[in-house]
Every structure is written in C-alpha cells, then in structure tokens.
Amino acid sequence: MANQQDLTEIYSFLPCETPDEWVQCALDNQSIxxxxxxxxxxxxxxTAINLMYRYPAKLDLQAKMSxxxxxxxxxxxxxxxxxxxxxxxxxxxxASRYAGGMREYVRKSEPEQLVDVLIIGAFIEARSCERFAKxxxxxxxxxxLFYQSLLKSESRHYQDYLKLARDAANGSIDQRxxxxxxxxxxxxxxxxxxxxxxxxxxx
Length: 203
Fold this sequence. Notes:
Elements: H1 4-13, H2 20-28, H3 30-54, H4 59-85, H5 97-103, H6 112-135, H7 141-149, H8 151-169, H9 174-189
Helix pairs in contact: 1-6, 3-4, 4-8, 5-9, 6-8, 6-9
C-alpha cells in the first residue's frame, strides 16, 4: 500500500476531495464501477503506448510509459478476473466527461501539448489513487484489498507523469498545473448525468 507520505502528497496536489455523494453512488453501482474501472485501466495503457509512439526520442518517457502500460494492463486483467467471479459481463461503455473535459484545454504546439497531456495524466492517476483510498473502507474484503493494493502504483504513476511534464517543459509547470486544478475541480464537483469511476456528483 502507498505510505501516508504518498497519499499526503496526492491530497495536496488535488484541488478537492471526492464528494461523499460519489462514494454512495459507487457503492450503489458497483457493477458499473468495475466495468468502467476496467475501461480506465485499458485506456491508461493505451495512452502510455501512444505517448511512446509519438515521442520516440524521449528515452525517460519510453522507460516510464513502458512500465506503466504493463502495470495498467495487469490491473485490467485483475479487474476482469474479479468481474468474472461476480458474473459481471465486460461491455462497451460511454466514457466519462472527466478526461475529455481536461483535454479540451490541451495546447496545440509542442512542447506545450506534451506538457499538458502529461499533466492531465498526473491528475487522472492522482484522482484514481484518491478514489481507491476513499472508497476501499466501504467495500467487501476482496475489493477493499484489491483497491488498496493499487495505491502504490497509482501514486508512482502520478509522480512519473509530473516528472516527465517538468522535463518536457524544461522549467516550472506550476502555473499550468494550477490552471488544470480549476478544470479538474469543476469536473469532480459538478453534476454528472452518468455514474463513472471519474464522474462528478450525480444530480
């Protein structure tokens, strides 16, 4: 499990805590939560591989994204195994507005585009870690232990994305992180029409 320092850093990085209303909705919709969680793990691996293809000359990015992709695919397999035991069928599902909402603010020129994509990656991993930690005490033993086991890797992924963003910017990214903080907070605290792992508050 991630140590307390890891979680303290993540809590400091994120602009707000996940609302209690989301936790209750997740508990009431655990099948949807698991299906969407599986999709999130698969998308995370795909994002990492796409970055490897787009930026082949960045060797630190290659190494970190290769490891991240392997870990995310392993998590995807683990979620599918839990779903199979619970007779939950993996199926297509519309994406939440969370990642897409942040990507609307990605700049078009380089290296600014890469910096923004990496910052968004850091927010996604940090928010995932925060939600795993927040909901795990209310879950059955199998899911609680599984979600707690993900905290360490999700915390490291967040740190990797931030380091890569700083390297790509070749300087401070504090202002850009602050700007994305506002976007992320609005997505997390505003009303959402569909429950997803990264959704906002249900009306």
